[in-house]
Amino acid sequence: MMKNKIIYGEEVQESALQAGILDVLLNYLDRFHQDEDVATHCLLVLNCLADCDAGRNKLMEKPILSSLMNILGKNITEDVMESLLELFGNLAECDSVKLQLAELGLCDHLLIILKRSQGKPGEEHQSIVKMVCDLVVLILTGDASMDYLYNKGQGSIYKESLMWLMSTDDNLQIAGSLAAGNFARKDEHCIQMVKDGVPKHLLLLLQNHSGKDGDIRLQHAILSALRNLSIPLQNKPLLTELGVVEKILPMVDVETFPVVFKLLGTIRMLVDKQDKIANSLGENIPFIQRLIGWCTTEDHPGVKGESTRLLAWLVKNCSSKTVLMNLLKENALPYLVNMLNSEHEVMQNEALTALFIVASDVLSEAEKMLREVELLKMAHQLLKHSNDSVDILDKLLALYVVLASSEMMKLEMQKLNICDDITTLTDHSNSNICEKAQKVLNLLKVP
Questions:
Q1: How far is it, in rounded angstroms, from Cα 89 to Cα 138?
Q2: DSSP readout, 59-125?
Q3: Within 10 A of 102 (CB to CB), how many other CB atoms are there?
Q4: 236 with 272: CB under 8 angstroms?
Q5: Rounded to whole angstroms, how far apart are CA atoms 357 and 399?
Q6: Integer Cα distance of 196 and 229 in angstroms
């Protein structure tokens, strides 16, 4: 009855808390932890209390968390253990409690439970293994708790999670990959993790899961970790030497969009300032065709955006005219031009950089297509709405300067009457913008 009342009335919950129900429940849980019915009922009520703000705040106090944690070390049944882990998972959804749980040593308790449950037959033990793994990963999603548990690469959870990557248990493999991705949210961690051989373990784990029939959860977790590890500049050549791109490239055949999104992001990180990788991918026609196909998808905005960004990064980082010509032949330009319409300035910047390179290196081959996709019209719209962004204006004017070397594009610019808008920039507060604006006007022969 108490459980039902607490579930359905927040006022009743608050009254019960004021009456000291938590002390009663914790006392009963401590005294009767071996009685499955009593312990389970106490934990069900505690879980209900955790769903209201007052109850959650009270349960997050360190003395109460410590009391609950002590129960983990006692002789309790699997059902009671599951209910207790569910309560900790409920509380750990709140970022503010994740560090408290880490500091109180919850994860060390969880490792003990994990070792006790591993290898035992029965679904209940596998369920506990999964709940422990999920709870550890959940705690690692907090920045402060993750940093605390990493402990400069010496944390027990960090070291244990590396061992999970070499396990034959699916739950541990996925948890190890997710843990690696969470620990790799700081550059200094990423650099040390590469030295610790984490990418090698991830790639070995991926060997049997890189195709269409691979475990989607594992694919997503591994790619998330590899992407994060690829962010620091000094890691990129090291991961290139490990052949990361070559080993994940077969995953272009995977059709699950969340996995594709992580795949594209990982490749984009590894293309950055790696011209050999950019050239290799840009000369891989089937890959380019697949990439452009993703640029058209409306089923996953993340994949659509990430694929167009990768196109722009290939242009930016390649050192081969062949790559640019391949992109022209496969009709990539419309997607680069459409990036100018993005609501994100970073994507507008990337598009302008890529279009500037195309216009500088292969304008004679690209000018007809650029005209057909109305580059100048879109650029003009961007010009009208970018007065507050010096970076966008700078790149736009640089693009205009290059395009003005083409008589066809110069004529288009004159027809669009862009000169009035550019003239206003000759009085811009940034001297570089003033100079470039005047240069464009001179090239268009405007007095």
A1: 8
A2: HTSHHHHHHHHHHHTS---HHHHHHHHHHHHHHTTSHHHHHHHHHTTHHHHHHHHHHHHTT--SHHH
A3: 24
A4: yes
A5: 9
A6: 12
Distances (CA, A) of 75 to 72, 414, 429: 8, 83, 73
CA–CA distances in Å: residue 441 to residues 397, 404, 421, 438, 447: 10, 10, 10, 5, 8
Q: Taking the CB of residue 210, how many other CB atoms lie within 10 A of it?
A: 18
Cα separation, 219 vs 149, in Å, equals: 25
The span from the CA of 115 to the CA of 87, in Å, is: 21
CB 413 within 8 A of CB 376: yes
Task: Give tens-digit pLDDT for 19-76.
Answer: 788 889 999 998 988 899 999 999 999 998 888 888 888 899 999 999 999 999 888 9
Give the closest residue to 21 by CA, choosing from 48, 87, 75, 35: 48
Q: Identify the H or E element spanning 176.
A: helix 170-183
Q: What's the whole-number average pLDDT of the chain?
A: 92
How far are the Cα atoms of 54, 257, 294, 305 from residue 298, in angstroms, in the given order?
A: 43, 11, 9, 10
Residues 330 and 285 sit within 8 Å (Cβ to Cβ): yes
- Label residue 92 exposed, middle or buried (CB < 10 Å: 0-12, 13-18, 19+): buried
